[in-house]
Structures are given as C-alpha cells and as structure tokens.
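**User:** You know discrete backbone vocabularies at least as well as I do. Would you mind producing a protein record, from residues through to fold? Write it directly below this note and I will take it from there.

**Assistant:**
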Amino acid sequence: KDTITYYITTQSLPSSSFTFTSDLCLGAYDTLKYNGNVNTTLGYPKTYILWAVNNNAINNPPFQTWNLPVHFTAGGVYNYQANVVDSTGCFTTTSHIITVHSPDKPYIYGQDSICKTDSALLWVSPVNYLYVWNTSQMTDSIYVHTPGIYKVKMINQWGCIDSASKKVSFYPNPVANAGRDTTILVGSPVMLNGSNSIGNEFSEWTNGMFTIRNIAGPGDTTTIYPTSDMTVHLMVVSPNGCKDYDSVVIHVLQCRPPMVPNAFSPNGDGLDDIFKIMNPEDFGNLNSFMIFN
C-alpha cells in the first residue's frame, strides 16, 4: 500500500484596509488610500487593486491605482468597490460608502437702505447653522450702521459652505437750518423760517412750551410772539423718514418802543385832542418830544 502526501500551502488574503473620508462636501477632493503591502518586484507591484464605483468599473491601469484620487462634482451616495489582488492571485473585495453632501443655501433679509443715524437689522434664513459674517460676527442676525456689502458664510453639520451677500445703502440725509439767531423787542413778532436741504415730509418747531408741526415742503414759516428769551428747536423729516435737527436763539429786549398814534384831532371835542406818547411808563426820562409838519 502506497501513500502519497500532498502539502497545500494556504495564503492569507490580502489586506482590505483603506483610509478614506465617509462624508464629504460637494466639490471636495479626497484619496482612497490602501493600507496593505504594495511592495514591488522589478518595478511592478505584487498587489494591485481593481476599482469600481456603484458597480461601474473605473478604467485606470490597475498597477497605478492602489491609491485612488477622487473629486466629487455632484452630491449623492457613492459605493466604491475595491478588488485587491496579490501576487498569488488571492483577492479580497471590499466596499466603501462615501456620502457627498451639498451645502444649504443661505438668504439674507432686512432693509436695503437706512438713514445715516439709524441701523439696519440683517438676518439669515434658514437658522440653526454656523454663520460667519464679513464683520467677524457669528450670529444669525446682525445690526449694521454703515453702508456697504454684507456677506455671510453658512456652514452645515458636514462642514459644507455656501454664502450670500446683501448691499445696504444710506438714504440722503436732510440738513435742517433753523435760521440765524435774532434779537427783538418784546411784543415784536418773529418769523421762524426753517429749511431742509432735500425737501421734507414735515417739520416741527418746539421749545418745551409749544410744538408746531408743518406738513409741507421746505421753507415752512411760523410766526411767534416771544415774551422772554428762548431757544426754538427745529426737526425736519425727509420722505424716507430720516431726521435732522437745528435750533435758533431768540433774545427778547423787555423795553417797548414809544407807542404814538398816527393821527389826532385838536378841535376841543375831548376826543384825541392831545398828541402824546401812549406808554410813558416804559421810559424813565423823556428828553424831547417834537412834532414836525
């Protein structure tokens, strides 16, 4: 009886270990890196990899593809299959799922124009993301005080970024002019004659004791009869709601001018027979009083 002995040597399967990023953003570049032994003989690798994505073969020369560069121009789920073949012909097939995420689109809302002394509230939709404004603020809303273009980057949970921008301008600002300071005698009228550089929706005069509002164009006039010194403030409001302020100081002299009639009838009837000053109590001394013609 003869016995024949066969020795069978079994080879370990080639490594199926790869390094890759499972979640990427649209437009990203990455490389699927093989972590196994790729020693070469006479310049040729002992191990090579046949690649496919979503069951479609990738037609790269297999000796050059144990590290596979990838670039994603569309979102979705990609199933990369790697058939690792060593020098003995043993092979291992493995799959690697990469999900490519698209960024979420931000939109900026708020005022397009503001008055010079005001601020505008800008806010981003949708909410509950990470935001980075070109003002360095990192909130979903900001107040702005100067004209310019405001930009925001919105970052989702995968680190994917999209951006939006909004231009904010200034309305023309009115310039109020309450007129020149003046000095009057008590009892004399003062015409408040204010102006606005660009036309106004309305103007308002006030000094704490009265308020006079004029709903008209520039050059509104108001007559007052001050009995003591006062400062009167003017506020003008443009059609866009922008405001400006100015004031005028009125000094009131308390001495009244001589009050004399413009005619008299010296006929002895007891009515207006005497031509005289009607307010002598306002004068301590009367130096002279003459009638001509």
User: Anything to note?
Assistant: The CA atoms of residues 111 and 141 lie 12 Å apart. The longest strand covers residues 91-101. The chain is about 0% helix and 45% strand.
